[in-house]
Amino acid sequence: MSRLKIALVANNIHFRGGMERYFAELATALCGDHEVHLFASEIDDVPRDKVTIHTVRTVKRPQLLLLLQYYWKSSNKLRSKDYDVVHTIGGITAKQNFVTAQYCQYAWGDTIHNVPGARNGITLYHEFMWRFGGFLEKRALTSNSTLRICANSKRTRSDLVRFYGCDPDKIDVIYNAVDAVRFNPANQRYRSQIR
């Protein structure tokens, strides 16, 4: 296999969250055989001597401004380089060819509107955010430049087809993995001490 130039694009890459850990582990697994470039606001828990880091500085709050800044800045940084693979999470940058979808924004909005009690605590700001986030997500997932989509469940795959009109033949379902050493039932003996 030839050595690829791969860009991994996520808001944050580290071991302190689900999506964040996914990208940190992916970067670690790929950097031995490929040239890996990371685009994120916060990067940790990766072999820094084996990857190229492109920090995308954004505000932390409000969420809308963070999303807009990250989208604009990451898109500009990616535009100046040529990559064999640009792998993103959802619709967080202007151009990609591989997207991981953890859920479907429009499906979440559909639940809010159609499940009794689901709107409790939902403001106009939340409504705007899922619509805007969904617009960017749909744009990324249905783009001609997007060659493959990774969905983390059959339900997510179904939602992407239903709400965004994604080509089902482009979607692979890859379930979230579990670190069997870290999350081993034998470790339950420490539960009471930790609590």
Structural overview:
With 195 residues, the protein is an alpha/beta fold. It has a single domain, classed as Glycogen Phosphorylase B (Rossmann fold), CATH 3.40.50. The chain is built from six helices and nine strands. It has helices at residues 18-30, 63-79, 105-114, 124-141, 154-164, 191-194; strands at 5-9, 12-13, 35-40, 42-43, 51-55, 85-89, 98-101, 148-151, 171-173. The strands form two sheets. Strands 5-3-1-6-7-8-9 form a seven-stranded parallel sheet, sandwiched between helices. Helix 3 (105-114) packs antiparallel against helix 4. It starts with a strand and ends with a helix. The mean pLDDT is 92.
How would you summarize this macromolecular structure in one to three sentences?
It is built from six helices and nine strands, in the order ββαβββαββααβαβα. The protein has 195 residues and is α/β, with parallel strands linked by helices. It has one domain: Glycogen Phosphorylase B (Rossmann fold, 3-Layer(aba) Sandwich).
